[in-house]
Design brief:
Length: 349
């Protein structure tokens, strides 16, 4: 999302028109669902994707025609079994795409608000009001500021549409409401090789990552280009220097040593953090568990921690371990990591 809107703002500022392609609804088995976006310019490769294959190829061709005609439109695409086989895809279904033409050098304060919200840690939604002639206006919604840039639309109209996926509500105007930013921050303690790789992967997956390390040589922004913030300080008392952790936040502990892991876990366990993961071998995990139980933490508190961390994909390199951890966190974010589902991947710390 951030990549698409950064490219869109740059294009419009440079005097180049653009078409923003958004999947507004889908049915059946499709590569991407509502909220998937692709930016098409007059020349060059598209930014983002709405699923690839034949649908994306046809969408790019239509977007370029709409650029020449300077207008917006809807289009629906069906992926039949034969078509999916021809393109090497195994998905089949229907998608509806809104092609949103944007003129260059047209002041759009909403894009500045979008950029600010994408850098934040609070949940936010993009609201597009689409008229019967397919013309549009855009606004944003977040809990702190409410609905902005669409003064004729009541917040009570938008509230029921706020969710994890994009929703198109038919009407006059039709309202397409999609998540712009998910609530929550990943607090990653430990900027070693795995931590660096994980930071980059999580940033690509639209997580906001704050990295903390007590080693000045490790806690450097240039070593962690995907991090929203990098902080250096002792692990002891680290949470006192950070905003209070909420039920939307994630904690990943990858410090260099057993004692530092225990120091961080003792601070994190009393919080409502949505996800707590700690790297380490089974021997290290057992030692950490014994120490925390002796310190007065309960079995139930221990069971909140994913350790050894990540899904069991068999990887050993820092990048492979980071991928397994990111996959587990994505499963948590999507709601798949709960109850007995994926429980085979969770060991008690």
């Amino acid at each position: 999302m951030k990549t698409v809107f950064t490219a869109l703002t740059a294009s419009l500022s440079a005097g180049r028109a653009a078409v923003l392609c958004s999947i507004t609804s889908s049915s059946g088995s499709t590569p991407r669902g509502p909220g998937a976006k692709m930016l098409v310019l007059e020349d060059g490769e598209p930014t983002g994707t709405i699923g690839g294959g034949a649908v994306e190829y046809q969408a790019v061709q239509l977007a370029r025609r709409l650029l020449a005609e300077k207008r917006s439109d809807f289009a629906s695409y069906h992926l039949s079994a034969g078509e999916t086989a021809d393109t090497g895809m195994i998905c089949g279904g229907d998608v509806r795409v809104y092609f949103q033409f944007l003129e260059p050098n047209r002041p759009l304060p909403v894009l500045r608000a979008v950029a600010e919200l994408l850098e934040g840690a609070d949940a936010a939604w993009l609201v597009t009001a689409i008229q019967p002639d397919n013309s549009w206006r855009m606004g944003v919604f977040d809990r702190q500021n409410g609905l902005r840039f669409l003064p004729d639309i009541g917040p009570e109209t938008v509230e029921p549409l706020l969710g994890r996926r994009g929703v198109l509500a038919e009407g006059c105007p039709a309202l397409y409401v999609e998540p712009l930013n998910r609530a929550g921050t990943v607090y990653l303690f430990g900027a070693g090789h795995v931590g660096r790789a994980l930071t980059l992967i999580l940033a690509l997956a639209d997580f906001r990552v704050v990295v903390w390390d007590e080693r000045p040589l490790a806690a450097k922004q240039e070593l962690l280009p995907g991090a929203a913030e990098v902080r250096c300080g002792p692990y002891a008392g680290a949470l006192e220097q950070l905003p209070p952790l909420t039920a939307d936040d994630y904690v990943v502990i990858m410090t260099p040593g057993h004692l530092a892991d225990c120091t961080m876990l003792a601070q994190v366990l009393p919080t409502p953090a949505r996800y707590i993961g700690c790297i380490g071998s089974r021997k290290k995990v057992a030692a950490t568990r014994e120490k925390l139980l002796a310190a007065g933490f309960s079995e139930a508190e221990m069971d909140r921690v994913y350790a050894p961390i990540g899904l069991p994909i068999g990887g050993k390199t820092p990048a492979e371990v980071a991928i397994s951890v990111a996959a587990q966190m994505i499963a948590c974010r999507s709601g798949r990591l709960k109850g007995d589902e994926l429980s085979c991947c969770k060991s008690r710390i």
